[in-house]
User: Fold DUF2971 domain-containing protein from Metabacillus lacus.
Amino acid sequence: MGINFEQWQRRIASRSDLTGRVTHLTRPPAEDITDGMSFNEINKMAVDNLIKILKDKRINGSSKEGFIVGNKRAVCFQDVPLYGLIQNVEHERSRRESGEDEKLRYCGVGLSFVKADIYNAYNGRPVIYEKKEKARDLLPPDEWWRIVNYDFKYDNRWDIIDWTHEREWRVPGDMDFEYNKGFVHVILYNPECVRYFLKRCPEEIIEKLYGITTLKSVLM
Assistant:
């Protein structure tokens, strides 16, 4: 037996590990990120990309190069509360700054939407964490965009592929959104990014936003 939307909201509100929103984090184009560039500088460039997304009302989907299985592009979201989101962002920052991994997957800049609207208005769905080969046998090819490779094998050393901390959702294809669907909410990394955003984003767009959250404030 199901529950109504108000009951679902109360359930979410009573759990600190759950959220009623999903968040898409963006980043600058990889070719624009140079050696020695600080994380703050990178986040400001991500803000420029965010403003373009808000003007276009479109989030472009990732392809195979973005770890999407199959031939269909998809837009990626994290289904985590704000404190989990900033922890994931800070982990990515520390990996890059320590030299453990030079690839920057996302910044602390993006958009969040109401989960129910992502599900109903945009056909968003939770991903399926499984070995790619096995998941391909379980799903038809037109659903492979939902697959995220997962492998917790032990072969005389740990060689783990595990992205479950993102609790990922995906929307197939590119996502053309409306401001009256999903209550578009802006996510920014720190106060510096907020000032940069408010100075450059058109006022008519700011007036349509549901709100702005500064991630670093969640930690301090």
